[in-house]
Amino acid sequence: MIGISIYNLIQELFPISRSITGDGVRKTLSIIKNSHLPGLKVHEIATGTNVEDWVVPEEWNIFDAYIKDVNNQKIIDFKDSNLHVVGYSEAVDKEISNSELQAKLFSLPDLANAIPYVTSYYQRTWGFCLSQNQRENLTDDSYHVYIDSKFHKGSLTYADLIIPGQSEDEIFISTYICHPSMANNELSGPGLGVYLAKWLGGRSNRYTYRFVFAPETIGSIVYMSENLNILKDNTIAAFNLTCVGDNNNTSFLPSRNGNTVTDKVSKHVLNFKKPNHVTYDFIKDRGSDERQYCSPAVDLPMVSIMASKYGEYAEYHTSLDNMDFISAEGLESTYQLHIDCIEILENNYYYESNIYGEPFLSKRGKGYMIVGGIENESSSSSQLILDVLSCCDGNKDIVDIADKLNMYAKDLFGIFDYLLNEDLIKVLS
Amino acid sequence: MIGISIYNLIQELFPISRSITGDGVRKTLSIIKNSHLPGLKVHEIATGTNVEDWVVPEEWNIFDAYIKDVNNQKIIDFKDSNLHVVGYSEAVDKEISNSELQAKLFSLPDLANAIPYVTSYYQRTWGFCLSQNQRENLTDDSYHVYIDSKFHKGSLTYADLIIPGQSEDEIFISTYICHPSMANNELSGPGLGVYLAKWLGGRSNRYTYRFVFAPETIGSIVYMSENLNILKDNTIAAFNLTCVGDNNNTSFLPSRNGNTVTDKVSKHVLNFKKPNHVTYDFIKDRGSDERQYCSPAVDLPMVSIMASKYGEYAEYHTSLDNMDFISAEGLESTYQLHIDCIEILENNYYYESNIYGEPFLSKRGKGYMIVGGIENESSSSSQLILDVLSCCDGNKDIVDIADKLNMYAKDLFGIFDYLLNEDLIKVLS
Amino acid sequence: MIGISIYNLIQELFPISRSITGDGVRKTLSIIKNSHLPGLKVHEIATGTNVEDWVVPEEWNIFDAYIKDVNNQKIIDFKDSNLHVVGYSEAVDKEISNSELQAKLFSLPDLANAIPYVTSYYQRTWGFCLSQNQRENLTDDSYHVYIDSKFHKGSLTYADLIIPGQSEDEIFISTYICHPSMANNELSGPGLGVYLAKWLGGRSNRYTYRFVFAPETIGSIVYMSENLNILKDNTIAAFNLTCVGDNNNTSFLPSRNGNTVTDKVSKHVLNFKKPNHVTYDFIKDRGSDERQYCSPAVDLPMVSIMASKYGEYAEYHTSLDNMDFISAEGLESTYQLHIDCIEILENNYYYESNIYGEPFLSKRGKGYMIVGGIENESSSSSQLILDVLSCCDGNKDIVDIADKLNMYAKDLFGIFDYLLNEDLIKVLS
Q1: What ipTM, to 2 d.p.?
Q2: CATH homologous superfamily of domain A2-57+155-346?
Q3: Chain A interface disruption, residue of B295, B308, B316, B317, most A CBs within 10 A
Q4: Distance CA C429, CA C325 (A)
Q5: pLDDT tens track for B73-101
Q6: What is the reported pTM?
Q7: Domain A59-152 belongs to what topology?
Q8: What phi, psi does C143 have (nearest 5°)?
Q9: Hey, is C241 helix, strand or coil?
Q10: Which residue has the higher pLDDT, C338 or A380?
């Protein structure tokens, strides 16, 4: 089961301390490239570079951090969880009173054993995150706080992989690699991306595939800015991979447009395979890199097919979004949904009938006899041939036809092959 | 009542042994031509002619057939019912064992007193059809089976009738004449076709009318192939006449397109006159000559307005679909539905108002006085004139306007005449 | 409260005897011009002038009228109510029998204390209106009827007011001034019109505003005919002011087209401010000057936002539609609905995003930090900025965007101003 392989990769990447810049991202991409995707290209963009409305920030690295009590005991230690430090915290090393410390702490009263995930990328500060249970034990009058972090004019790191196909038209698959140790959001996304790329790399494809592994928001803005024309001109479908790891829910976030071929194919697959999936609203519920790629002036046909959606489960953005929250079964399920979407996109065409009236199926060994209104055994496949052909008017693609027949598009591939082989239909270019 | 005349014609045609070729078709068309439609043109197309994907089959005629038991008694006799022989059976004359015979028999366990209707046009074989009750009496060890039938390179017979109108645009009405002794499917169709043609022949029409009487499937493919351009270029509306004889249901099969003027007019008529009618789906439920005429590359605007639809009643394709199953009342009802559709099509135009604001109806003797919010007696017809005029924006035909006013289109003909006479509207060409 | 000012103006105009022509109209327009709208232009059009399908009728004035009983007592007196005389009654002065009189009387059995409003503009007659209670007291054998009225070749009077804006595109606001002493239908309309014009006259407007005060039907046909091209070319939105005075209901009559920007804005305002409003059907329920302005060949984008709609309340067209039926609260409410529609129209544009991806809000002091999935206090306004921007694709106006966000359009004006100031969007011309 491929879900196990994805799970194992995620487990390997889990301990690394990632942020939007820094060595954690580099280490993550290096494992992916060296062990799985040798064709992956890693890029660096220098601190201070203007990208659209943004500026690439200083690079941030962190080496150690803790809070010590009056007895010199480390009661909060970055080595226990890289979530303990607010992302992009500046260095600090001093005694402070309990009340001063409280103003620098983040915890979740309603989820008392979870360490929250907090960042402050564009406002220089420092802080610690801890569980509410830990916080309630802080009874000393003063504490020693220590963060050994460093900012410098370095670069932001991201990577892409192009798998060429017969067409220059591209299917674009994006995922992000900027979160520290959390599993559903976000490592399930890169994990799934790696295995989709491996599967596609082993096939001959109609479309070219473009995979991007970049820090969320600033990374996708960098990537979009550097590849704007090719993304806008060539992308015929796009998927954002996020929160694809658990087995509790299936969630769908449509594109901004809502009516693209990616939306159509995804809805078809989800309606057949996950009829209980929840559909969210782009404007009200968007929250990942589709905010950039689907922005009005870019307007890529990007959707997100997810398990439990970010913001919709209690463990989201906490230490409880861990390797127990996701599962090989959940990863297998979202993998299959994406594979089905891709296979349908690869086989999706508008067909036009070549024939006036119905074909003479008897001469092809596909005829049938009607007995008192009851069809005999050979008739149902013949009927399906005729039903599909009666839909081939040049205005319907495979998904439209499958929806009209209330069938799964993949189950019609053989019928379309038969009709093409018999020269009964042609592909519209 | 015209339903009685149609019923009587069907009764006259009922005993004839028809198939997709042969003298039964010729005799049927000859009665129609000689007694009702002298303008009918009968055509023959030779065995072996290529038509689209098909080849015209050998002509088949049958003269006698029976099964005799060991006592030399005819226990199944073609003279009792022409349904007893599988259509297109080859000749046979021999003793066979009971078990060999069983493999050649067709009966219906769930409808024990009905002889099923079975054919094998394109796979050479022979067989008998009988009721389940008859079959259960077959206890002898062997039987003599005898079929005196003949295949030869003859021709397939069909007929058409053109009733010229002011316009070259055509309304196309098709029905089929290839079934042996069955009443709703199929003789009700030709019966209705004859009387619609007689009614139209006695009128001056806006449109040209084309009637076709041909064997189902292969006959309609022949007709379509021989008249492809004129059918595609000139047909503005089309009706397939089938299963129009009983008084139990009203059924509607839309065109493949679903959105043609024939669909619009038919739905309007059925919604007003038969609000409980059942609407079927073209892809899932089609089954008559619309399979050819509505095929994507032909795409005629053809619908079927039916009583009990083929495949949807127990007696379908059995000896119980007989003269008791249909009725003069049922035929009268479907006749009127088709007449209404035709009258609405003949009177259907897009109108545009000639006037800014409302007309001054008082000077035309159509004004009215309002009393405390209660309209007086002359006001309702005046109101209807104004209501109709307020819809004449050039984007709505008569049916659209009638639907908007929740009225029957035929009841508005007088209003449109008034508005035209008063020069308040003009017809859009 | 402006509703009180409108109420007071209506009270001043209430006693005047108006009809479609005559001095009552002139006196009404004179009060409006002299006390409120000095820019109002009063026009006269001569009896006998051809306008479209109509002819301007003779001018009618009435000076006195009564019915006297055998004791010479005035039992019905025009001085008590100008509704007592059928509009456009010819002069009469004679003794008639009780039964002759009955044929000339109008009363309402189901509303026994109401005097109905009856007119006979285009059929010369005379008559009296009275309450059913009064009528039942008429037991004398004969009565003296007296109407001192006069027809002459005079003119029909109407007025308009143009408030120029930055654009030549116009918002057209029409109301009528031909009914005698009734409050909701009709004086609420002119009352509201005056105060909308005063408010607009004190502002700098994007659009030019055109107000018309004219007798219903014949007056609006005259106005339309005299200003046809400018109305058709320049009108981008239009409101008919009628029945805007009571506080019992909110009613909406869409334009004939149903899909204009006036319809869109009005529905948006009503859905937010009056979710229980009743929407009527243009064809089935129209009944005021939209019958002219929305007629197919004119087709202005005119709607009516009303309180209790004409024809839908018992007091309509009777003496009970008086100053007690309307209220300052009702007038205030419909005033605010119209103000909101106008403010939204004035601020309505199609916007296009200037930016690829999202803007960097942190550098603008609008960034925010995410804490364990819970947004902090500054985040909701930032989120709204991003939500609105994600809708600015050039295909949605402000109302479309507000509907998409389930917000009131007026509450988004500040966001659009911010985005414009930051150069993040541009207006599509």
Answers
A1: 0.93
A2: Zn peptidases (3.40.630.10)
A3: B295
A4: 46
A5: 999 999 999 999 999 999 999 999 999 99
A6: 0.94
A7: Glucose Oxidase; domain 1 (3.50.30)
A8: -140, 160
A9: strand
A10: C338
